[in-house]
From TrEMBL:
This is Thioredoxin reductase. GO terms for molecular function: oxidoreductase activity. Keywords: Flavoprotein, Oxidoreductase. It comes from Manganibacter manganicus. Residues 6-278 form the FAD/NAD(P)-binding domain. It holds the Pfam family Pyr_redox_2. The keyword Cell wall biogenesis/degradation does not apply.
Length: 305
């Protein structure tokens, strides 16, 4: 007979692991699947995660795994390929060619950052190419900042990084609205009608960005505004999602399908580590209550028969 567990958590970033920690401590049989690196592995040191500022992602995630496992969660290094809802309210989870039955599903699958196609971008991602000053603005404060990327977010990104340095140049051929232009002018942000085509290093230090016009711009920190999309199609196959594939949920992580929950970057692209961890702690009791109601319903059926 196939094994049935209370919860399958998909994804072992901080969101999935904090959900697993809660559920394991609540005595719920919990299997966590993880098929690859967490988004935080792009950096060498995590920031703004209270108690862990400056720690390596490996340290943070190893400790989180150890804690969940210590209370009985099982973690399997496998990609979940598909999840099928069954008539009896259970879910068939297929990972590594082997099926497993689960009463509830927690999707903690994260997101994918869509990097622009410029030279050296993969190598620079998470080090010289920065995504949010909340994470590492402090480390480069008052440096020469260059901002480029997805047009719709540029004015916001430039104004935001301006809080960490007065020296900000936006490189874009995009025409800003009057409101955006006025805000950036008041903040002393320069705009340059050009396109970033590459990153220039001296040794392992970023010194400039290259532009389409051939003029390098000296910089200490390059900030890129990005699009992102859901890292997995599992939500799309199970519940309502938005146009980028992120699960639509209520504040507790419940999706449109009973028994399926989504947390962390899988339903909130702006979630930092602390928010992602909190979403796992929030969903834990909600999943437990769902399991309690399910148990009651099954017992009423047996009693009535
Ligand atoms: C460059 C960069 C720097 C950052 N720096 C910071 C920082 O300093 N501080 C901070 O608070 N936040 C930072 N963040 C944000 C942080 O990475 C996210 O908030 C956090 O990783 C979200 O956690 P999560 O658990 O939701 O997703 P993730 O950590 O991305 O975990 C999702 C997991 O699900 C797995 N997965 C996906 N699909 C499947 C599947 N089908 N089957 C099995 N497993 C699957 C993935 O392999 C991954 O391990 C940074 C982000 C970036 C891009």
């Amino acid at each position: 007979m196939m094994t049935t567990v209370d919860t399958v958590v998909v994804g072992a970033g901080v969101a999935g692991l904090s959900a697993a920690l809660f559920l394991a401590r609540a005595g719920r049989s919990t299997v966590v699947f993880d098929g690859g690196p967490s988004r935080i592995h792009a950096v060498e040191e995590v920031r703004e995660y209270i108690g862990f500022d400056g720690a390596s992602p490996t340290t943070v995630l190893r400790q989180a795994r150890d804690e969940a496992v210590c209370f009985g969660a099982e973690i399997r290094s496998e990609m979940v390929d598909r999840i099928d809802p069954l008539d009896d309210g259970l879910f068939s989870v297929l990972a590594g060619g082997k099926p497993l039955l689960a009463r509830t599903i927690v999707l903690a699958t994260g997101l994918v950052d869509e990097l622009p196609a410029i030279d050296g971008i993969r190598e620079a991602w998470g080090t010289d190419l920065r995504v949010c000053p909340c994470f590492d603005g402090h480390e480069v404060r008052n440096g020469r900042f260059v901002v480029f990327g997805v047009d719709a977010r540029l004015a916001h990104m430039a104004s935001w990084v301006r809080m960490w340095s007065p020296d900000v140049t936006v490189v874009t051929r995009h025409a800003f609205t009057d409101v955006e232009a006025e805000r950036m002018a008041l903040l002393g942000i320069r705009t340059l009608a050009d396109e970033v085509t590459g990153l220039i290093h001296e040794g392992d230090r970023l010194v400039a960005v290259m532009t389409a016009s051939g003029d390098p711009i000296a910089t200490d920190a390059a900030w890129v505004s990005l699009e992102s999309r859901a890292a997995s199609d599992l939500a799309r196959s199970l519940c309502e999602v938005d146009e980028l594939g992120f699960a639509k949920t209520d504040a507790g992580g419940a999706t449109s399908r009973p028994g399926v929950f989504a947390i962390g970057n899988a339903n909130e692209p702006l979630a930092h580590l602390v928010h992602a961890a909190a979403s796992g702690t929030t969903v834990g009791p909600i999943v437990t209550m769902y399991l309690l109601e399910r148990m009651l319903s099954e017992r009423r059926t047996v009693k009535a028969a």
